[in-house]
Specification:
The chain is α/β, with parallel strands linked by helices and about 550 residues long. About 25% of the residues lie in helices and about 20% in strands. It is built from 14 helices and 25 strands. The strands form six sheets. It has a seven-stranded mixed β-sheet, with helices on one face. Strands 19-16-17-18-12-15-20 form a seven-stranded mixed β-sheet, with no helix packed on it. Helix 3 links the parallel strand 1 and strand 2. It binds one RNA strand of 74 nucleotides through helix 6, strand 6, helix 8, helix 13 and strand 19.
Length: about 550
RNA sequence: UGGGGCAUGGUGCAAUGGCAGCACACCAGCCUUUGGAGCUGUGGAUCUUGGUUCGAAUCCAGGUGCCCCAGCCA
């Protein structure tokens, strides 16, 4: 496929191309406008990639601008975390700016509107403002302060700025139309008074702070942004976005809206994610079950896989809920190509090979990645006592079960054929040990007489094994849409979303690097958690391998 | 009962008046020293009614359904 054919197209890219062609703009500049009030999640990635790629594809620029207009919610910690996550994704920007960089200039622009008679200071209480806004079907009524003269408005605004009035006592409002069918146009607030807490960057310099509507478009204009791309809920704000710019007579970017990313089996709202963390339903914002970038990073997802998912989801205006199965498929697809294969047994069952010499240990050759010959090979030690997966043995095999059962022969990957000869049980009847014999003529995995076995299973030599902790993850919620209903999401938490196991890994995995990713053969992809200790590494399950047998067995029931 | 927006297989996205296609999921088979990967194939969709047109997912009109908006949040 040529790069040309591979290039995604959608209504936004088409609009941008048209704007360039028509001469409406001669260049492309977009902006990434996160509010530094929380950690980034997978939903943000879609918006980020739209802004980044559209700039990049048009040889344009991206500005990372923090929308820090509300000091009661924002913190420097989040600025740093967001930058770090965005960089991890591979996003590049020409500079970092802040809405707060423009507070002075914006204030001058506000005075200009006051002078034009397009803005006024309103002394109504918040309750009165709300009451007089009207409803969806009834027009609002004008504030009694709406017709204050310019001089008084200028004076009051200056005194608001100087901190002479308490929070909530006054606001600056645009003078538009209290009967407008679009409620955003009913004299929207431009500035509100906030004395505390201090702003994370400007400290207590300012006592008034601009609202989103008054700040965003103006900042876009000041920065020469050509395309201000945002999610659908801002569609209703576009008339206001344009009104301010028209009144000021300044450079006018184009706002285009798209639908945000939703995903099943998780929640995306900041409020709900916060509750999960604060009520200890998960272990922090970087819990591998969280849809946050920090969670997914810890889980072992690669940036490439996440970006591929975003690309496959596409861009449109339909309300949509993406399937987490697609994300997982993208992760498998990426890791399949790059992850080294290793043998690990996560639910061990001991097997004693009775006819194998007691003290012998052989080195078996194993392929590191069948998808990538350059990854080479390694040696794996083999001996008389090994561990295999509990799932790989059944005392009474179900139909089509090809793995180990009494009398059956299977291949130990990269080693020998073994045949199960005996089963040892504890007092409760649980199988605790298997006895088997091996065929010395099958070393390496092939029988000289040409006989075949139907199954190949993985194993770890008990004598050479390293004990590790393995954290198995399942979906955080057991309902496709946990967000429906306000309080319901906590009631559909999956109680089994985390399972901690103790397993064994081959020596090649005895001292793994934190963050490195492996495929545990036949089990899935795993990555090394920061909680790892030299004496006990910790692995997170990133995603399982497709399991045809599990599916068959489930279906048979 | 105001304004804005959106309706295409189970899910997400294409088709820009001319054979409804792609990916994931699903199902069947091939292959396999991972029941992985890979390969082949099957099934399944244009919200509804009417109109324009040789021809409509696309244009027009009505209907229905869903989403957003009444923060001094973004």
């Amino acid at each position: 496929m040529s790069p040309e054919e591979n290039k995604p197209t959608d209504f936004i890219r088409e609009a941008v191309a048209e704007d360039l062609k028509s001469g409406r703009y001669t260049y492309v500049r977009t902006r990434l406008p996160p509010e530094p009030n929380g950690y980034l999640h997978i939903g943000h990635v879609k918006a980020f990639m739209i802004d980044y790629l559209i700039a990049k594809e048009n040889n344009g620029e991206l500005i990372l601008r923090f929308d820090d207009t509300n000091p009661t919610k924002e913190e420097t910690e989040f600025v740093e975390a967001i930058e770090d996550d965005a960089r991890w994704l591979g996003i590049e920007w020409v500079k970092v700016t802040y809405a707060s960089d423009y507070f002075n200039e914006l204030y001058e622009w506000a005075k200009k509107l006051v002078l034009m008679g397009k803005a006024y200071v309103d002394d109504q209480t918040p309750e009165e403002v709300s009451k007089n806004r009207g409803t969806l079907t009834e027009p609002g009524v004008n504030s009694p302060y709406r017709d204050r003269d310019v001089e008084e408005n200028m004076d009051l605004l200056e005194r608001m700025k100087n901190g002479e009035f308490p929070d909530g006592s006054r606001i600056l409002r645009a003078k538009i139309d209290m009967a407008h069918p679009n409620i955003n146009m009913r004299d929207p607030a431009m500035y509100r008074i906030i004395h505390n807490p201090p702003h994370h960057r400007t400290g207590d310099t300012w006592k008034i702070y601009p609202m989103y509507d008054w700040s965003h478009g103006q900042n876009d204009s000041m920065e020469g942004i050509t395309h201000s791309l945002c999610s659908l809920e801002y569609e209703n704000h576009r008339p206001l976005y344009e009104w301010f710019l028209d009144q000021l007579g300044v450079f006018k970017p184009r706002q285009i809206e798209f639908s945000r990313l939703n995903m099943n089996y998780t929640v995306m709202s900041k409020r709900k994610l916060r509750r999960l963390v604060e009520e200890n339903r998960v272990n922090g914002w970087d819990d591998p079950r969280m849809p946050t970038l920090r969670g997914m990073r810890r889980r072992g997802y690669t940036a490439e896989a996440i970006l591929d998912f975003i690309r496959r989801v596409g861009v449109a205006k339909n309300y949509s809920v993406s399937d987490v199965a697609l994300l997982e498929e993208c992760v498998r697809d990426d890791l399949n190509k790059r992850a080294l294969r290793r043998m690990a047994v996560i639910r061990p069952l001991k097997v004693v090979i009775d006819n194998y010499p007691d003290d012998l240990a052989e080195e078996m050759d194993a392929i590191n990645n069948p998808e990538d010959p350059s990854a080479g090979t390694r040696k794996v030690p083999f001996s008389k006592v090994i561990y295999i997966e509990q799932d790989d043995f059944r005392e009474v095999p179900p139909p089509k079960y090809h793995r180990l059962f009494p009398g059956n022969e299977v291949r130990l990957r990269y080693a020998y054929f073994i045949r199960c000869t005996d089963v040892v049980k504890d007092a409760n009847g649980n199988v605790i040990e298997i006895h088997a014999t091996y065929d010395p003529a099958t070393r390496g995995g092939d029988a000289q007489d040409g006989r075949k076995v139907k199954s190949t299973i993985h194993w770890v030599s008990a004598k050479h094994a390293k004990e590790v902790e393995v954290r198995m993850y399942d979906r955080l919620f057991n309902k496709e849409n946990p967000e429906e209903g306000e309080e319901g999401f906590l009631n559909c938490l999956n109680p089994n979303s985390l399972e901690i196991l103790s397993g064994y890994v081959e020596p090649a995995l005895a001292s793994p690097t934190v963050g490195s990713r492996y495929q545990f053969e036949r089990l899935g992809y795993f990555c090394v958690d920061p909680d790892s200790l030299p004496e006990k590494p910790v692995f997170n399950q990133t995603v399982n391998l497709k399991d045809t047998w599990a599916k068959m067995e489930k279906k048979g029931k």
